[in-house]
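hey so u asked for the seq, here:
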Amino acid sequence: MDPWIREAAAEIAARAARELEALVAVSSPSGDVHGANECASVCTALLPGEATIERVPCSSPGHAQDLVARLHGTGTGKALLVGHVDTVVAHEEHRPLERVGEQLLGSGSVDMKGGDVLAIGALRAFAKRPELYEQLALLLVCDEEWRTADFGHVARFTGFDACLCFEAGELKGADEGVVVKRKAAGTIHITAHGRSAHSGSAPDRGRNALLALAKAAQIVALEHDPQGVAHLTAVPTVMRSGDAFNVVPGTGELYCDVRADDLGAIERVLEKLPAEIDQVRIEAELIRRWPGMHSEAAVAPVLDAASSALGRRVAPAARGGASDASHFAATIPITIDGLGPRGGKAHNPEEFVLEASLQPRAEVALAVIVAALAAA
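ran it, structure tokens below
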């Protein structure tokens, strides 16, 4: 292994567990301004003194500003590191970090505050090696987990040579895995407009929005075909309807999470929904559009170079979940994701990072960054 990678990764890992504890201690569900600002303060304290730091508008209205940190060097090549500080965990369910055996267990630990800590550590390491880059930037957003607006940062990093995202890492067999392919993702929002009525004395005068939404959910679910050509998954996830136990529900809404190799397949699911079900008017729209990521060919030489520097193979992998790397992949061909630590149970009360993965995954991240900059 390259000696600098070994030493720098050891320094990152020596601090990572404590830094993760500080970041996970902040409850930061998507949309919570105070939590996002507290996370930004923690991250700013951990960043190298050489970095210039700014807060920029978030893609989602009403959210705290996102954080951008930049290092300016004397070399060539510009690389962007990407992460997010928001979680899906509500304040009342938040769990601070605790060590349970080999696990660092806490809310948002693997998705993706563990990755944020490694990205910040990488910036500290590269602050000592300015000859390796012209610019190294870090973008930390606070709305990744529940964004329905268009992503607003692509133009900000026009001309960058590489985008490296720190979502959770993985093993691919015996090899270190990084993500080079992701599905497109969309959220279908369906609203039903029926008619309220007394459910005891006049139920047939109503138009039941809840039953219409249940049928709409079945229409979407029937498109689920993960083994098909588009590898499409279609999963109804949230339904709300009705205000009282004795009233025919007149309105309601349904959310469905749909993922496929491309957005076109997701849009075709939307087209399957009728304008009316059982005399209940149906309105359906795609409120969240995340493009797919297909970087396999462009990043193959980078992974070969990173493997040589690391002394073990860095293997390409595919993942169904979406990430902000997908938004950059169309304009930055060298886009690689999954550079964070290994762990599991994301979006779950038992979410964790494997402490033993911090140093090897820091090594992977540093090797990939060096190789991506050299390829610029």
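The domain at 184-289 is CATH 3.30.70.360 (Alpha-Beta Plaits). The CA atoms of residues 105 and 352 lie 4 Å apart.
lmk if thats what u needed
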